[in-house]
Amino acid sequence: MTSPTRLVLDTNVVMDLFHFQAPPLATLAEAIKDGRVICLANNSTLAELERVTGYPQFRLDATGRQYLLQRYQAHLTVLPIPSDESPALPALPKCRDPDDQMFLELAQYGQADLLISRDNLVLKLARARQRPCPFAILTPDAAMIHLFGAHSGNAATED
Fold first, then answer.
1. Domain 5-148 is in which class?
2. For residues 25-39, b (16+ Cβ closer than 10 Å) or e, as one string?
């Protein structure tokens, strides 16, 4: 038996899954719920998600925000943020948006197999040659094919 695939989901993908319940990601949602994949997060990524759920376009009141966060956290492995005493890891490519670097660092620290993102600046790093990532970086569509072998168009738009 193989161990579950370890995933890092960027905030947009979490919103697609747990707020919009995007039909193209239904298979991923089931895999998360069933424990066939492991989602990784840390306090920084969770803080960003909490902040984003407050954006007016999502129309979530305090109860809705808390419910979304609880549903996501029920299926997470929350990792500590590496300390200065943590073993040094190989250098990662630098994302042009410093707010997205935390997803790369989490994926590396958590030994993720895959970072799923809709952010164009993060997706560009999948092709980094000088400092390649030790994990794959894929769009939700590509991740669905990679993980489950089935193509399902992603209704969400790129950032």
1. alpha beta
2. bebbbebbeeeebbb
Q: How many angstroms separate the CA atoms of 67 and 84, rounded?
A: 34
Note every long-range contact of 98-101, with CB atoms under 8 Å and residues 24 or more positions apart, other chains counting.
99/48, 100/10
State pLDDT tens for residues 8-36: 999 999 999 999 999 999 999 999 999 99
pLDDT tens-place string over residues 109-129: 999 999 999 999 999 988 877
Cβ density class 66-91: b for 16+ within 10 Å, e for less: eebbeebeebbeebeeeeeeeeeeee
Give the model confidence (pLDDT) of 124-152 as tens digits: 988 877 777 889 999 999 999 999 996 54
- In angstroms, the CA 89 to CA 45 distance is 19
Query: In sequence order, which residues have a C-beta less than 8 Å from that of residue 143 and are 6 or more positions away?
Result: 28, 114, 116
Token reading at 106: 């989490």
Domain ranges of the chain: 5-148
